[in-house]
Amino acid sequence: MGFSTAYLRGEVLDGPTFLELANSYLARLSIGLPRSDAEAQGLDYNAILAYAENGLTSDFSPLAEEDVFFNNFQDWSLFDLGVAGYMPTDLKILHLFDPTYDTDYPEDENIILGEAVTDDPRLAEYYKYVGEEFGFLRASRGRYLFSSYQTIKFFNDNDQNSTGLPTNIFAKAEIDYIIAECYYRLGDFGAAAAALDASPRMAKGNQATTVAGPNVLNALLYEVSIELDLASGICIEWWFMRRHDMLQAGSPTMYPVPASELEITQDPIYTFGGPAAAGEPGTASGANDWRNIDLVY
Questions:
Q1: Fewest C-beta in 10 Å: which of 75, 89, 219, 265?
Q2: DSSP assignment, residue 157?
């Protein structure tokens, strides 16, 4: 493709990079479409693999321009209150680092969870232990949602709206994990493990992956949750978990059509979600709930 175009602060998007980006989005959207493992089994993983193998070879992260283009999702997710983060680190991440770590924060207000234990250096690089400092969180709204960690990866002194900062639109690592997942779905666990070994899982985390189906899938959950956290757009972790039935029973697997629009089209008003509807359309079954997985890698 013989074109290039300047955008945002004069950065150039040339033809080859545009094609890589287009293939990357084709891979992301194609593999992210299913709302359950049953739906995911019907995808053409050879086609998705071809998209991914022609995808990004480096991160796509145009530089921010103040008040024009910046990562507002990161801005709020990383906001520091001085003693804790505005948005605490998901307990799932800590449990993946350390399988002995609680999956729900204790309801007893006298119990403060300690630090997670892992040989993965990304725990200390990406996250910070804050102990009993919970920021804006209130026990009356569910102490089980608390966390004793805050995310510090990409933190920029409470201001992501700064010219020159990376915006982290699409991480090359996401393509690595899509390739590995395609091989997993195709039953080639050796190729899947090799793709993971060639990704940040080994380069940054020094984490090996055993050539076996459950190990590969657990490693993918680990990497999508940790390495792609705030690093490659939104919804990536949710899409991954819903297509592998890893969401907790009752979690929504899609967004609803607003009732006001259904009234206009004269379609029936409907609802979904909640434990009582587990396994019904739009609601996660919890068949492979992340809290119950035997985390072998």
A1: 265
A2: T
Q: Where are the beta strands (DSSP E) in 75-117?
A: none
- List the beta strands (DSSP E) in 108-189: 127-129, 149-151
- Report the relative pairing of strands 149-151 and 4-7 from DSSP bridges: unpaired
Tell me: pLDDT of 6 over 80. no
Give the pLDDT confidence of 243-290 residue by residue, as tens digits: 999 999 999 999 989 999 999 999 999 999 999 999 999 999 999 999
Nearest residue to 159 (alpha-carbon basis) of 98, 220, 79, 219: 79
Per-residue model confidence as pLDDT tens digits over 155-169: 999 999 999 999 999
Q: How far apart are CA 227 and CA 122, in angstroms?
A: 8
Q: What is the pTM of this model?
A: 0.93
Q: Are 127 and 151 in contact (CB under 8 A)?
A: yes
Rounded distance between C-alpha atoms, residue 108 and residue 146, angstroms: 12
Phi-psi region of 100 (alpha: psi -120 to 50; beta: other; left: phi over 0): alpha
